[in-house]
Amino acid sequence: MTSLSRRAFVTAATATLLAGCGGGNGTTSSANAPQRQGSSTPSGQSSAPSSAKTAHALARSVPVTLRVPAIGVDTPVMQLGLASDGTVQVPPITAHDRAGWYRHSPTPGQTGPSVILGHVTVGAYGDGVFRHLAKLRKGDRIEAGLENGTTATFTVTTVRTVAKADFPSDEVYGNVARPELRLITCGGTRTGTGYLDNVIVFATLTG
């Protein structure tokens, strides 16, 4: 990661995360979130070691597709940067919803946490690409198709639903010694403009 990208990545880690939360009126709502008491995964649990063996890190290559067979996701991947207020951009609210890779994070398969965001709903267009993200379970497979023609295959280690008010920036963006993936969307109770929680999937490169 370049020094510029690293600075932007750290900036995002301390900023409010806008995590793909298209509401019924077509707007997005901010999503920052650590674990809220009473949610589905105990506080402090994050990218726990998987029973599957971690694969060796891959060379840098931008993701162009994302497949999550267990929940029927098969989507192109666009690139996202930082908005003018320092928050992470989100994919546009469109009928043909796509996931978005945060380009200041490692590419999928590089050492570190690669971050991909998607909408849970897209306003009047209905369900978003990550509508069923919370249904993923430990051991499910995620495949990121890369620009160089290879596929980075990840195995889900943890799925967390967390309050936006306590987004676990260190756990999502913090340094890790192996290639990992974060998929993020909104979840929990829906309000007039969005959702109260975030759903975060932690996964480790296994193939």
UniProtKB/TrEMBL annotation:
Residues 26-56 are annotated as: Disordered. Residues 1-19 form the signal peptide. CDD domains: Sortase_F. Keywords: Hydrolase, Signal. Residues 27-52 have a biased composition (Low complexity). It comes from the Bacteria. Pfam families: Sortase. The keyword Ribosomal protein does not apply. This is Class F sortase.
